[in-house]
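dumping these here so i dont lose them again. two proteins, back to back, each one seq then structure tokens. dont judge the mess
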Amino acid sequence: MHAHLDALKNPILSPLDNPHFYANNPSAGIRQRSHQTISTTNRYLVPFPTSIAGNRCYTDASTTPDTTTSNTRQAGLGVFIINMDVQPPISIFIKATMQDSSSIIMAESAALAFAANLLNQFQCRRSTILSDNQQLVHFLNGSNNFNPPDWRIKPYTQIAANILSTTNLQVRRIKRNQNQMTDSLAGQALQALRSNQLAYSSSCTNPSYENDCPVLRAINAVTINSVMVLSASCC
């Protein structure tokens, strides 16, 4: 603790933070630009998502890799929510499908739009959507939400952008290895879609809700174009 306080009072500049370093080392500008690029890339990265208070909502999608053709294909969507504002915490698992995805970012935009709409239904005090798609996260946090990187995703990014502008909801990025639960949910949803196992199922084992689960009611109230929920569970 004392060492930390001393460091705050007398910060030691690293070469990257010391302007004299660049004056005496012209070639160091390359390293400065590299440092700035890394900082921009990690701008919205959350190293430890479990430290986030409130609702943590993880989203992901599973589909075939993008190709040069514009053919649509099936995709599985996964949404995993942990509400830390209640005790005991509530966990929500959602598997959904999309029949006409044209790209990976389109499927992930649809999953994120669904999650944003659902969290808005909950009217929670604080919520964070976590995605491992850097391009999507940076776009939704940018100043211009009217020109998406792929125009086919605009219906979904516009839903998310509209909700973000009127709520305390925020979108942040996590690493792929921190998004394994939703990756699994999305993969299971895609497999069910390919096997034509499309019967909807839901369950709630939270004793606080008894026979009337507000979470499942909220999920049923969310409608996103081309997205169909396969299963939802609250526990």
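---- next one ----
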Amino acid sequence: MRSDAKNGVVRTVRLELRGSPDTDEMLLYIPQVAKLQALDLNGQHLVVPPGVARDTRLVCSRDCRDEAVTLTLAGDISQLEFAEER
């Protein structure tokens, strides 16, 4: 976790997605209150443009059933949701 004087506390959260062999899709829901700032997945760094505030849904195929995702968040992380679809 790091501190940012302008925005308060900014957290970097690394998630290890682990789906079953029957996984068709991995789902990650990031609510607006989490204040997503950036997402790193599969070698890509995606930055949320300033002023964009909305819920984010990440849906990826079975290719990411064993993938690491790094989120940079400046808000409440208690409502993150994860699911596997078969």
